[in-house]
Amino acid sequence: MTDITLYHTSTCPYCVQAERLLSRKGITAINKLNIAQSEALRDEMITRSGRRTVPQIFINGQHIGGFDDLARLEQSGDLAPLLGLKP
């Protein structure tokens, strides 16, 4: 099973788009961490990703980046293998 962590805020449209893209790929088990609710989660996200913006997406512990990075992986055909899916 693929482990996906999505650092987000509830008002972020790119976070919603990232979740929708993953959902279209059949991924519904997402560990969503709302950084607006916890300074510790925000600090954890920054430490893990080196970035301050949301979303920050990790697949099986690998930092993917934000929504634009996720969308580029989808367009190139590289997302499905990362998710353990057939292209």
From TrEMBL:
<dbReference type="GO" id="GO:0015035">
    <property type="term" value="F:protein-disulfide reductase activity"/>
</dbReference>
<dbReference type="InterPro" id="IPR002109">
    <property type="entry name" value="Glutaredoxin"/>
</dbReference>
<keyword id="KW-0676">Redox-active center</keyword>
<keyword id="KW-0963">Cytoplasm</keyword>
<dbReference type="InterPro" id="IPR036249">
    <property type="entry name" value="Thioredoxin-like_sf"/>
</dbReference>
<keyword id="KW-1015">Disulfide bond</keyword>
<comment type="similarity">
    <text>Belongs to the glutaredoxin family.</text>
</comment>
<dbReference type="Pfam" id="PF00462">
    <property type="entry name" value="Glutaredoxin"/>
</dbReference>
<dbReference type="GO" id="GO:0015038">
    <property type="term" value="F:glutathione disulfide oxidoreductase activity"/>
</dbReference>
<feature type="domain" description="Glutaredoxin">
    <location>
        <begin position="4"/>
        <end position="64"/>
    </location>
</feature>
<dbReference type="InterPro" id="IPR011900">
    <property type="entry name" value="GRX_bact"/>
</dbReference>
<comment type="function">
    <text>Has a glutathione-disulfide oxidoreductase activity in the presence of NADPH and glutathione reductase. Reduces low molecular weight disulfides and proteins.</text>
</comment>
<keyword id="KW-0249">Electron transport</keyword>
<dbReference type="InterPro" id="IPR014025">
    <property type="entry name" value="Glutaredoxin_subgr"/>
</dbReference>
<keyword id="KW-0813">Transport</keyword>
<protein>
    <recommendedName>
        <fullName>Glutaredoxin</fullName>
    </recommendedName>
</protein>
<dbReference type="GO" id="GO:0045454">
    <property type="term" value="P:cell redox homeostasis"/>
</dbReference>
<dbReference type="InterPro" id="IPR011767">
    <property type="entry name" value="GLR_AS"/>
</dbReference>
